[in-house]
Queue: 2 jobs
Job 1
Amino acid sequence: MEPETKPRFVTTRRVEFIDTDMAGIVHFTNFFRYMEQAEAEFFRTYGHTLASTSEGTGMGWPRVAASASFKAPAYHNDVLDVRIFVRRRGFKSLTLQFEFHRGETLIATGQIKTAYCRFRPGQPIQSLEIPPEFNAMLGPYDAALDKELQRSESEN
Amino acid sequence: MEPETKPRFVTTRRVEFIDTDMAGIVHFTNFFRYMEQAEAEFFRTYGHTLASTSEGTGMGWPRVAASASFKAPAYHNDVLDVRIFVRRRGFKSLTLQFEFHRGETLIATGQIKTAYCRFRPGQPIQSLEIPPEFNAMLGPYDAALDKELQRSESEN
Amino acid sequence: MEPETKPRFVTTRRVEFIDTDMAGIVHFTNFFRYMEQAEAEFFRTYGHTLASTSEGTGMGWPRVAASASFKAPAYHNDVLDVRIFVRRRGFKSLTLQFEFHRGETLIATGQIKTAYCRFRPGQPIQSLEIPPEFNAMLGPYDAALDKELQRSESEN
Amino acid sequence: MEPETKPRFVTTRRVEFIDTDMAGIVHFTNFFRYMEQAEAEFFRTYGHTLASTSEGTGMGWPRVAASASFKAPAYHNDVLDVRIFVRRRGFKSLTLQFEFHRGETLIATGQIKTAYCRFRPGQPIQSLEIPPEFNAMLGPYDAALDKELQRSESEN
């Protein structure tokens, strides 16, 4: 998959009973829940949060797109390794890539594209440039972005 | 259970695949989700909503308490009858009672106690008197409240 | 988007209060829940189900991949039109495409790739050919599959 | 609330973004999810699990009843202390009591009554006596059960 040398954030997630369905495996929607939780841990490790509100104005990271591929079933009580990579970083949006493993077994991969936005009562959601404090967090994870990505990045 | 003559609101809910767990039955938390959805349909039938926001101020019905008893398992694709009764109506709070049946089989019963409240940014949630338009909706459902309930009601 | 003449299944979904998050909009994971429910309605219209069990053996449609793009926020009480198209039909897998509209506004698009499988206790999940009764349901929706898709289909 | 000397199991739960609703607080259904997860951690600490399957036969703890009272709102990123007490232990059922605190603030209390059961394909769910290994886990938490409870227990 990804070379071990690529910078990544790593956490774990235990499959809860409620995450299973009558087929005995994790219902696929939960992987999107797991991705968001892992992302939140990544942010929190650097002192940031996915969403905050102050005086009625909210700042957050609504999703532009999300996808996942399911490679092998996950079961109740599985402890999944979750790895996060910075796939693409633009001025206003961020694409994170996720990999779930149970031991050596690849369970699922996924991506979330998200944009930094402001929420104000009675106004449309407004997309903003990603602030420096988030870029400081994300920068070290750019190292392994391949040349092609960096080129498209510079044109963003 | 409840005599047929007692005023009640009736709707149905189909059990979705995602609502099941690895034991092959509906995960108990979904009954609370079903209760809220039935309550929302009850409100909507009378032109009301469980939650609204305007200029940053929200009006809604946060929950004070919720309970349920599970009598028989429900399965994927079951279509449950959901009956709502007004159990108790106070100046600021409302207790609704719920019954779930699959045909003649009682599946679950539950109660939700909820309070009418205002949400303003940066301020504590404030409990308010239930407005007349909601009381107009609820009044006809009081008919069957038993004497004891009416007495405790009047002391509220 | 899609030409009106393309065969599709249409249903609706109302946004429930529980589907919202503190940003005041539908949490993105719910669109995957909505897609599965619409798919289930599509199947049910033709007398089929997404999952069944008999004597401990289950038949179902576990997901191979799922994706969505979020074009505009959806809000509490929105009634979304959900359109389903058959995007690709193979011997063992099926890709459905989804579009969510609120009136004229495109809210989200998505795809789910799913495989027909058998679940037996203590055995690996086994992928099977899609049975004739499902192909009879899906066939009429193939009409608008473009030539390129049909070619790749025939090589599947 | 409960005296500090009463035996209890303690864990924590962080409020995730997905757990919030448009009112900006934790949706009440999540407290039931939190209770089950805490219960699972309690069981796991002693080497047990809430649900298992083997050769198509499942053993688990379906819920007989669940209730909660909500004392103060919880918010995104709150880290809640979750305390579990054995409220009542019968031959076939177990009632656990839960308390959620954020620092000194009591957020919610709840109870789950659950029964030890066997699930076999095509057969009704069967209630069984709680096995010795679970009673060994639960026994030390009985210490503070009051006399009245112990009496009703012995009549069970």
Job 2
Amino acid sequence: MRTVLFLLGLCGALPAADSVLSRVDAHAANFGEVSRRIWESPELGFHETASSALLQGELRSDGFTVEAGVAGMPTAFTASYGSGKPVIVLMGEFDALPGLSQKDEPVQSPAKAGAPGHGCGHNLLGSASALAAVAIKEEMAARGLKGTIRYYGTPAEEGGGGKIYMIHAGLFRDVDAVLAWHPGDANEVSLHSMLANNGGRFRFYGIASHAAAAPERGRSALDGAMIMLNAVEFLREHVPQETRIHYIITNGGSAPNVVPAFAEVNLIARHPDAQVLAGIWNRIMKCAQAGALASETRLEFVQGTNYSNVLPNDELAEVLGRAMRKAGGYQYTAAERQFAESLQKTLGAPAHRPGPDSVHVDKSEGSGMASTDAGDVSWVVPTAQFTAATFVPGVAPHTWQAAACAGTTIGRKGMEVAARTLALAAVELYDNPAELVAAKAAFQKRLAGRHWQTNIAPGSKPDFDYALK
Amino acid sequence: MRTVLFLLGLCGALPAADSVLSRVDAHAANFGEVSRRIWESPELGFHETASSALLQGELRSDGFTVEAGVAGMPTAFTASYGSGKPVIVLMGEFDALPGLSQKDEPVQSPAKAGAPGHGCGHNLLGSASALAAVAIKEEMAARGLKGTIRYYGTPAEEGGGGKIYMIHAGLFRDVDAVLAWHPGDANEVSLHSMLANNGGRFRFYGIASHAAAAPERGRSALDGAMIMLNAVEFLREHVPQETRIHYIITNGGSAPNVVPAFAEVNLIARHPDAQVLAGIWNRIMKCAQAGALASETRLEFVQGTNYSNVLPNDELAEVLGRAMRKAGGYQYTAAERQFAESLQKTLGAPAHRPGPDSVHVDKSEGSGMASTDAGDVSWVVPTAQFTAATFVPGVAPHTWQAAACAGTTIGRKGMEVAARTLALAAVELYDNPAELVAAKAAFQKRLAGRHWQTNIAPGSKPDFDYALK
Amino acid sequence: MRTVLFLLGLCGALPAADSVLSRVDAHAANFGEVSRRIWESPELGFHETASSALLQGELRSDGFTVEAGVAGMPTAFTASYGSGKPVIVLMGEFDALPGLSQKDEPVQSPAKAGAPGHGCGHNLLGSASALAAVAIKEEMAARGLKGTIRYYGTPAEEGGGGKIYMIHAGLFRDVDAVLAWHPGDANEVSLHSMLANNGGRFRFYGIASHAAAAPERGRSALDGAMIMLNAVEFLREHVPQETRIHYIITNGGSAPNVVPAFAEVNLIARHPDAQVLAGIWNRIMKCAQAGALASETRLEFVQGTNYSNVLPNDELAEVLGRAMRKAGGYQYTAAERQFAESLQKTLGAPAHRPGPDSVHVDKSEGSGMASTDAGDVSWVVPTAQFTAATFVPGVAPHTWQAAACAGTTIGRKGMEVAARTLALAAVELYDNPAELVAAKAAFQKRLAGRHWQTNIAPGSKPDFDYALK
Amino acid sequence: MRTVLFLLGLCGALPAADSVLSRVDAHAANFGEVSRRIWESPELGFHETASSALLQGELRSDGFTVEAGVAGMPTAFTASYGSGKPVIVLMGEFDALPGLSQKDEPVQSPAKAGAPGHGCGHNLLGSASALAAVAIKEEMAARGLKGTIRYYGTPAEEGGGGKIYMIHAGLFRDVDAVLAWHPGDANEVSLHSMLANNGGRFRFYGIASHAAAAPERGRSALDGAMIMLNAVEFLREHVPQETRIHYIITNGGSAPNVVPAFAEVNLIARHPDAQVLAGIWNRIMKCAQAGALASETRLEFVQGTNYSNVLPNDELAEVLGRAMRKAGGYQYTAAERQFAESLQKTLGAPAHRPGPDSVHVDKSEGSGMASTDAGDVSWVVPTAQFTAATFVPGVAPHTWQAAACAGTTIGRKGMEVAARTLALAAVELYDNPAELVAAKAAFQKRLAGRHWQTNIAPGSKPDFDYALK
């Protein structure tokens, strides 16, 4: 593999690439262990106490200055090395998903039934960024590179929006570039975006009554929710087909013999364009109001997730593309291949996806169908992101298969691809600050006069228990 | 049967009863034929041109002064004999029901598929009242009884509310009492009421669009209707159990590949108490508004039927009770019995209902589960009504079985019971005007300070085609 | 009040009534305190550990032999005194309702938000029966009356069906009569029944998928539930109006960005006639199957509550009627009157209900609109029940108003009426065992050859956490 | 314009192009008049008697042999000239759409309220193809070109599927190529497809009952339809986003006071891939079955429209592309420009669409979001189709705006572009039969071993009144 890398390296222009890659290699085993420890104790958003502390400890012992509990969130932190401009930020997520507990086996087998699991590979995400940060710091120190490298521990990406509170807290104000990545089933750099989303809790308040003796005196909050949701289903036909609307009922009454006085819906909508989404959201709100109107209940809305679509950065994507070509992919061992093939048999449709030994760099745009608070960062700082092959080809995030991969050597090899790419890209930027100027210009061009908007009010307090409800 | 009648007659106090009954007998065959001719050419509400003309002709040739096209309705008429007080009115309905075409056979067999039929026996209703009117007129003439007897031809009882326009036109202003009857499966006088109802058309206006190419540009009027109706279904649990809400979709879009720009619901709600009904109606209206709100369509409401519950008259019910006991029931012939038994086999549940040879007089109150514009008359004039056994025991109105009976000798024997009862009661009232004073007092007591209310505005024009839509 | 009682007493034939009433009086304060302690610490069905222990302790210290944890239920118990025939059973319930926590004030004010409360007055129910049992035991002991008096501590009446497991365990096999009561807003003995009910959990199993990235690969269990429930709403129009169907959604998905793989509905249906109910239930099951069919999910049904309608006992009702006339009602103090009037102002409609100073004894049948596992007992042993005025007139069970009353002196006065009635009736039966023979005959007549049926299989284990879900 | 054409012509290889274009010019005014006459008397599918006769007459008088009433359809016809191979077919549609009556004005203004209108421009479609056929025939005659040119008058494209019956009748068996076009808002040749569709009527049969007196005895057919449709709405989230499902309710009950014994839904589903559509259709059918199951009604399905997606032909698209480049676009007059601008103001969103003066030729694939029975033809004969700018840029088919354009000189200029393109392409094929061999090979490649499938059984009779229901 290394041979391939050298050959690929010829088409790039990466000074000191070998040195950077050696530094990543030197710490890879340690941060691989870190990723595994986080994977073994999955923690939900805003409750990633041990995961956050573990990463903080590593970075501190590697020479970073760590500030914990930033932006009013106990598990958020910053780790910094160096001083002055330019300031480059790597981001680390480490929250797990509810109900996705899984062993590192190619059959569905929860480690603990009903418990959370790393179905989005954030154990790798946070660890790879930390690995890269350490390698970058060592390179900066060795070569006396000017500027600051920071690692931002960003909690609760899965719905809690930790990064948004960090933006509100001003933590991105002096940042020149953010380099981000996400676990995936292939090594890819592109100009892809992600969906803007918006969500929250629709609470209906009715009047309780004995459901058998006096149902006519009751006003059912659950009726309000049901009428709203039926209306939302009718709405689906009349929104652009890329729209996504999904919901759960988090409270559907307390006892069947009592007309429900309270009911709650948790709903998220998404669209590639935040402005179109705002129009759709307005219509969803009308459905909710209709539910309250028809059931004679009272509606209350509690803002939840609200992520912007990702604004790609053409310049940084070029830098990352060069870096990934240099970083290269990886080969499966025989055991890994067997694991991958077993896992692929559990997937419904055949996967026509590239293997982990290849890297894909292009300028395609399109939109991934998930959402991330990295999108919000991309509206305030030049930001680029890529995926690395931590999951077996064909495996989608938020599945038990992804959770399984995230605990294996496949996941760890993928996180090394990510760390190599991040480290190579960051060092290139320190070496050529002009690229950061170009990145800023590319950022302004994509903004096209618009600016970041969010429904999460500055100064508001996160809903720390959002993932428990 | 006549023997029984004489025995029963002893407990009453009916002067000249024999004479009155003879006069009914003398015209019974002719009006029986009239009822059959109307039955053979069923006409929907406001379109009862031939039926109305036939009855007008009979009454005119029997010496009544006929005024046609009263109250702005071509098929409404008044027929009058005598002059001055007291004024007693008999009411005649003659409209048929859509889709209930039926031969006079005990198996479901439309005379003409999809055509109207006399499933409510109004061919008998109008004819029996006319038969009674003629007998009363002859008795008044023979004995020089003081006062006026009138026959009101009241169109479109099945939803068009002809009587309400006749009230608005002032036709009931000088009336002292109204004696009414309705075809049924037994001979009964009671203090029963009928349900108040309210109804109309909910029209939704949306935006058409190609349903495949641009569904997101359309706003579906049908969605508006569906969301409204789903909400109405949820409402059912939370209204008093005696409530009835029923609807049809009269326009559900014009082509499946076009987002419907128009949709229409025809809905009726009912409750024994008009005031409670008004509250329920308010909630139905909210469901409709919710449908429009959630689908971004425009709602228009067109008032339809609005009948008051029937206000019983304790005094007139006593008079009718005496009259029916004197009038007596009737016996089946062997052929009629066979017809009745065949018909009863087509009914789901066994009928524990009294036979046509008995008469039932009591003071039970309760509410029948249908509605009638005779209810509105009962709020402006002392009114009483009864049923006569024109249908085989167990047969409900608005069924093909009822339509079958209405064309047979069973129906005609029932209508004779009705005519005898009406004639005997009216003559008793002419003989004892004090009973009309008592009826007025009983009326005031039941009103209890309330007064007639209707959503049909004075001066508004009937929707003559309501039954065709 | 006592004066009134003596006057009323003349029409009865209650030997030793004064003595019995004195015995009740002597223990009333203590059991009033017991009722208050249970009220202050409301416990849900099958979790009434402290409440059950408290009543057991009282009865044990009053000389009863107590057996705890009977019929496989930790909080069920029997307390027995005497030996041999006849065997008369009083029943004590003591479970609270979820979400009805309330202070003893005439405004809605939870003692602890979201916590359970005694909205059905079972704190009084269990205490009054225990008070009566002690008085009866003392009277039996004093006069050497033959037979056995038992108190059955029956847990989880609110849906758990403790009594059914006690029937299955054979605890009613040697019983000659059961005397039961229930808190209400008036003192009434009649032949009223209660609704038969049936219920359970409808579980839908779908396929999880990322709701934004691959909704088309998911099969939503929540869709299954929603389609089922929409269909149930349409069903409401087409069942007899006395039917009741009510439900909550106990699991509506785990995260809004995951297509729900599991959803659960808890639904109860009721009708005065268990046989009609079975037909309706069959149609509800079709709605559930339709939900699974249309959403391509799998349906699982878990049987829940299943209570029989109450079979009245004409003979025991006569005994109870005599007893209640002797027991008499009670007067409000000025403070109680003020409390009552304040509370009544919180009720929507004016209450035309009898006051607590009157007693109502008649043979009306009809059906109360709630359900009870006392209904099941009534199908296996001659059983009669009545209500006592523990709630302010107009207050319905399962409301915060009822929960408030249950903690006041009004509730305690009502429970004394109940205790006096129970004690007088039981002693009459020991005195006149022939009445028990007549009660047995009346029981057989009402059974009319039918026998008790239940969906709760003999030997099955209760769902101890049913009220927590 | 002509100058432009000559310049463009240099890049093609069209022998005798000038001659062909002259022939089209010579007949353009006449067929423009024909298109206007058809536009003035819009006729619904299978009822295009006058439109069909008009086109037959023109072709007959121009020397074609006409056979009317082919394939069992009175308004279908073939018109033929020449003999032997190759056989090239042009297709002419002439049916209108219900409810789209419109004057040739840039404001919504029906010529006759509620009447049909040419909202898909088929008045132009049939006329342009006839114009081309005449020009081709003259060129063949003048130059002695070998082979046969045919015009197929194909009725009821808007849902009736006339072409499918013509395939079943063997009319396409000896055909070498079909050249087709469709009115649009731009001049475009590509490899675009259209959606496969499937549809039909879902009929529910219930039990009628008086909706107020005995709703519990009724089984509502409308409930069946509503439950089905609610389930279909829930289905939308879980099918691929390109799917289209749309429906109307063609019968929603006959009278609001009668439980509907009959209800009917007309539903169409579409997807770019017929095989995927079959899977989706299966799930829609389950929704319908669920509706019947839950409402205890009976379901009947009557097959309606079933069109295949369009199989592009790479070779014929090249021929058409060359022809259209030669044919060129057209310029607006000042009056036309004003009309266009007025009309565009009535469109919700700004139209970024090419003008009529440009032509667009590429190999893009994608799928248009409508469906056509030309798709079925494309599965049995090498077929290619294109659009010409008959509508103002931004105007979508099936709108009043399209209907307005179809009656103006804009529409007529667009149809001339189409006729020129068709004529040039056909003559090129007669001149170079090798291109037809290549077209056959391209056809086989796209088939990839599959063959045409349809739910319309061979020998079945069309539903001639489908558009009237």
